[in-house]
């Protein structure tokens, strides 16, 4: 029988109603006690790393989880992490980069309803996660509502429904059906073009800017003044950035000359951006911004933090951002060898 480590970090799955609303109160042992069927799947060790609502999750917590997973992988066949849903995709993406190329399943899961509730989705999600953690496909995954999702392609797209998570611009790794894991034919998770070692370094000074019509160019002065080292800009459509009234191009160019790393992506979650198609994309691309391609917002933010944790040299950051580490990005053929 395989052996799996269960790490509890909090979230709705471990919450109960308190004076100020749902609050994480249940331990890893409490959660496991509600699902006795798990004993038939594998041996389980439990560890309580933290107990927080995932809205309170910080990059420091990603590093703590990564360190716990890294030092435990040799002792277990797989790892399951209970986590709040609100920032689960950020954590799964961060782990995809920090953990390096893993040779075992690392599964992040949670629920929309507490483990203590009568009609909770938590039991199914946890059982499915342990089945996945005992599987043969390695990588960092989000398992939710019967779907196995590449961690760096996951995103929460619904606030209440049990099918809260989707795989963005990438096939499901597999499904869990009737107690069996069925992998998608031809899909191999976390096997990007570049194998990489464990590295939990990061720089949290990354700002996410979603453009709206009328965005004041002075926002970039404020961002720089606050000490940010990188910006992820969500442009319009394919990633377009205004260059006429209230042009943002000159301010972007100024910041880049000062050593700021800037990614430009699309606000649309599906199908990715392409800065080469329209003039509003080409003008900002000419200034040397980093294209976001089809990466999720969560992957872009965490990858840039991780990149800046390794180097502040804009060329070095650009090279990391243009490298596929965990199947987080579909690169054009002419950039795949960077």
From TrEMBL:
One of its GO terms (molecular function) is asparaginase activity. GO terms for biological process: amino acid metabolic process. Its EC number is 3.5.1.1. Belongs to the asparaginase 1 family. Pfam families: Asparaginase, Asparaginase_C. This is asparaginase. The active site is at 12 (o-isoaspartyl threonine intermediate), 85. Signal peptide: none annotated. NCBIfam families: asnASE_I (TIGR00519). Residues 206-321 form the Asparaginase/glutaminase C-terminal domain. Residues 3-184 form the L-asparaginase N-terminal domain. InterPro entries: AsnA_fam, Asp/glu_Ase-like_sf, Asparaginase/glutaminase-like, Asparaginase/glutaminase_AS2, Asparaginase_C, L-asparaginase_C, L-asparaginase_I, L-asparaginase_N. It comes from Paenibacillus peoriae. PANTHER family: 60 KDA LYSOPHOSPHOLIPASE, L-ASPARAGINASE. Keywords: Hydrolase. Substrate binds at residues 54, 85-86.
């Amino acid at each position: 029988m395989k052996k799996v480590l269960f790490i509890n970090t909090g979230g709705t799955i471990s919450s109960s109603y308190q004076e100020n609303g749902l609050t994480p109160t249940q331990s890893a042992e409490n959660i496991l006690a509600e699902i006795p069927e798990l004993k038939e799947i594998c041996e389980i060790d439990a560890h309580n790393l933290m107990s927080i609502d995932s809205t309170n999750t910080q990059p420091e917590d990603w590093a703590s989880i990564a360190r716990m997973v890294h030092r435990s992988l040799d002792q277990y066949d797989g790892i399951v992490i209970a986590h709040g849903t609100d920032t689960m995709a950020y954590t799964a993406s961060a782990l995809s980069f920090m953990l390096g190329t893993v040779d075992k399943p690392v599964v992040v899961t949670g629920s929309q309803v507490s483990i203590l509730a009568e009609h909770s989705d938590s039991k199914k999600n946890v059982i499915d996660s342990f089945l996945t953690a005992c599987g043969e496909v390695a990588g960092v995954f989000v398992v939710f509502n019967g779907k196995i999702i590449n961690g760096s392609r996951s995103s929460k797209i619904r606030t209440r429904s049990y099918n809260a998570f989707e795989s963005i611009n990438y096939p499901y790794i597999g499904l869990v059906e009737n107690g069996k894991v069925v992998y998608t034919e031809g899909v191999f998770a976390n096997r990007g073009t570049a194998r990489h070692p464990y590295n939990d370094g990061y720089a949290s000074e990354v700002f996410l800017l979603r453009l709206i019509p009328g965005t004041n160019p002075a926002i970039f002065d404020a961002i720089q003044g606050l000490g940010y080292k990188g910006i992820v800009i969500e442009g319009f459509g394919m990633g377009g950035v205004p260059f006429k009234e209230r042009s943002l191009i000159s301010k972007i160019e100024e910041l880049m000359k000062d050593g700021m790393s800037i990614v430009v992506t699309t606000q649309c979650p599906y199908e990715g951006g392409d800065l080469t198609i329209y003039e509003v994309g080409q003008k900002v691309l000419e200034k040397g911004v980093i294209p976001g391609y089809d990466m999720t917002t969560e992957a872009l933010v965490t990858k840039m933090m991780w990149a800046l944790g390794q180097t502040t040299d804009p060329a070095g950051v650009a090279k990391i951002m243009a490298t596929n580490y965990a199947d987080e990005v579909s690169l054009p053929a002419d950039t795949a060898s960077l």
